[in-house]
Amino acid sequence: MGSGLNLAGGGSLRATLPGVGALMALGWLTYAAAAVALTVYFFRNDSLAQQWGNRLIGAALIVQVLVFGAIFYQMKSPMDINGAINANQHQAFGAWLAKRSDIDPTTLAPQQLQAEGARWLNQNASGLEISFNSNPVELAGILTLIACTAFVALFAWRGKRMLEKLPNLDALDDLTYKTVSVAFPLLLMMLVTGAVWANESWGTYWSWDPKETWALVTWLAYAGYLHTRIVHGWKGRTSAYFAVLGFIFVLFTYLGVSFLLPGLHSYAGVD
User: Fold this and answer.
1) 8 Å CB contact between 176 and 240
2) Do 227 and 235 touch, CB atoms closer than 8 A?
3) Coil vs helix vs strand at 101
4) 109 CB contacts (<8 Å, ≥6 apart)?
5) How far apart are CA 176 and CA 164, in angstroms?
6) What is the pLDDT of residues 191-247, one digit of tens each?
7) Exposure pattern of 186-200 as b/e (b: 16+ CB <10 Å)?
8) In what residue span(s) does the Cytochrome c assembly protein domain sit (predicted)?
9) Domain ranges of the chain
10) How many C-beta neighbours within 10 Å does residue 46 have?
11) Contacts 24+ apart (CB under 8 A), 51-56
12) Rounded Cα–Cα distance for residues 34 and 41 (Å)
């Protein structure tokens, strides 16, 4: 609500943007159809299934770009924000309003909370703004999906040419080792400085919050990669599995934990 009211800390409201949900559903259906086609190609070596799988991946990329464009177009277009906020959110929002007024929401009936939330929105909806700033991880998730889909589509379109231009496997293996060697101490620095920040903010260096825990798991995965590489001399495919596993953990820590596991760093369960 401009600079006058910050709805963070439990008072967040989600508005439904017209048409975006239908485009997202179409996108996931396209992904599912592409997965079926490429699975048939993988097990049966069916060239027709491969062609359709590649086409559907391209179609999914187009749909995702349309989703991204539709979100920002709708955010910038004039709309009835109060009408876009589902009435199911009124009770939780009324409880948040009660807390801001130093009233225990448990002392009020659900109908009172529902009515208070609806009343406030009817009076103040004209001053509300739709923004991605309240949930930047969701925006990052959409952009990550677009980037991954674009990579798969590019590989399907020019896969052989891309493989021909890559360095040999030994050079790639050495590059992965050098990259992890540089990133590993930086990841350790992130854990240490994050713990210091947590102590300043919450009075404890480590609370086994899901984001903290998975950041540690990611660090241990890369520690395992370096240990097996340096001590046991692992190279090639076996060593690469560790690096890929570590990258999967990075993505899960940043995106998966934020939406699937509730915690201090999480968006899971936010009304």
Assistant:
1) yes
2) no
3) coil
4) none
5) 19
6) 999 999 888 888 889 888 888 899 999 999 999 999 999 999 999 898 999 899 999
7) ebeeeeeebeeebee
8) 141-265
9) 167-271
10) 14
11) 53/156, 54/153, 54/156, 54/157, 56/30, 56/31
12) 11
The pair of structure tokens assigned to 76 is: 């910038």
Rounded mean pLDDT of the chain?
86
Place of tokens 């370096």: 226
Q: Quickly list DSSP for 156-206.
A: HHHHHHHHHHSPPHHHHHHHHHHHHHHHHHHHHHHHHHHHHHHHHHHS-S-
Q: Distance between CA atoms of 152 and 158, rounded to whole angstroms?
A: 10
d(CA 142, CA 69): 11
Q: How far is CA 164 from CA 151, 154, 157, 173, 231, in A?
A: 16, 14, 14, 16, 33
CA-CA distance, 155 to 79, in Å (whole number)? Answer: 40
Nearest to 264 by CA among 219, 192, 215: 215
| Closest by Cα among 170, 79, 75, 61 to 126 | 79
